[in-house]
Specification:
heterodimer, A: mainly alpha, MetI-like fold, 13 helices, 2 strands, 1% strand, B: mainly alpha, 11 helices, globular
Amino acid sequence: MKENKLRPWLLLSPSLTAVFLLLVVPVLFVVVYSFWLRAPTGAVIPAFQFGNYARFFEDLFYPTILFRTLRVAVICVFLCLVMGYVPAYFFYRSKSRYRRALILLIMIPFWISFIIRTMSWINILGTTGFLNHTLMRLGVISEPLSLLYNEAAVLMGLIQYLLPFMILNIFVSLEAIDKNLLEAARSMGCNEWQAFKEVTLPLSLPGVSAGCLLVFVLTAGTYLPPMILGGPGNEMIANLIFKRVIGTLDWPFGSAISVILLLLLGCIVWTYNRYLGINTLFKAFKG
Amino acid sequence: MKLKVSGWSLIRLYTILVYVFMFLPIAVVVVLSFNPQQFASFPMQGFSLKWYAQLAQNESILRAFKNSIVLGTLTALIASAIAVPAAMAFVRYRFKGKNTLNTLLLAPIMIPEVVLGVALLLFIRWLQQPKSFALLLAGHVVLTLPYVLLIVQARMVSIKRVYEEAALSLGANPLQTFKEVTLPLLMPAVLAGMLFSFTISFDDITATLFWATAEHQTVPVRIFGMLRHSVSPEINALGTVMIVFTIMIPLLAGYFIRRFSKS
């Protein structure tokens, strides 16, 4: 019996060791470093002071980037929701024999490299790209528009990356709805729209909220789309961290910004978990 | 009645438009990779394979491909080797702190890759170790572990316990039971998890940018470097190769798993 008690721990020990050594301890190091000092020579000095945090909020430069990150994340969540609910509903109700193929198709971008998907938008939005070329051929414009290196371009890349997460999360919770409930609503005199509003929509909200959280968290930590599709004014918090750590080798300040990002996301995930339960989040992956 | 039909066709149209949004950029990458022009741009000036030929002679890209494949394969093997026992523990045993630990093992999904990148690099620096292939491998294992765990765990839940109990009551020890009963039933999920892990490792860019060295560049890191100049048709050709490669793997694997389980 004693052996039986030890066995789960034995089975867990490799993965726990890996996550502990490669994730928990390193993240603790980030927290510790965020209090350290950086000498003018570039050396780091162990200390306990809040200078790095104070520097972040010293003037508006850094908070602006933080605020921009949050704004882009909220816009992205909203757009993914608007663009994602309808296709998820289509999958749920469709009786087409291509339904399964269509669901598989929307998962294909998961398999395609993020950097390829991001840079593909340059081919679409660039001055000699698909959109400008088409619009000029149609005679709508005579000079190519500059569509790249702005926030809209960043959002395009982000949405294309995140939309499948949203669609699948919503679809999973739609699929879980007992179809008898809909029949009941219809038989009691609801029309299609009322049945949707009163039954389907409320019951799909767990998927909607899981999708929103996932999209928000992934956007807030995003590095690539602002880097490739954005201009100098579209930097987000992850770009800032990369620049401070890899560019200027300012480890303490880079660590402090990382902690700020982690705290922010932590608060959001904690709140979500408190009211909705984090386990709903992983449902889509298990489907 | 008429109204309902048009409502549904609107939904269908909307879905088609979303698909166009999702796949048009990818299609354009493939199309432009055959454009013989110097700059990746419209209009198409004919059809040529010269960028593919140039790609096949590009030493640094070939090396990056080799790195990516070795890295992805090792990541998949290690991640599944440690995820399978963990899934066993979570599904088959009761113990204190199970939910907390399960969440902890899934945490890498929720932590931004930039932070993971900084954290591991900082730790390595503190240990006074140089960046190396081992760092990339360790990082990728942590990045992909949660996905493998989720896939294997989901399958483990659906494997009925009675099979294992039957083996045990017939005198097999737990290790034999695992080898003869559980593992074969679990194999499709393990393979799927390995594939997923390989693809995530193969495609990863953000954290990898922190960890990669000049000699251990992966394909995405190489593409990132090339993008600094401009989008040349060569990148589109490389992109097409990547797209075909990463889509072929799951399709082929699905095919083999199905054949495998039939015979």
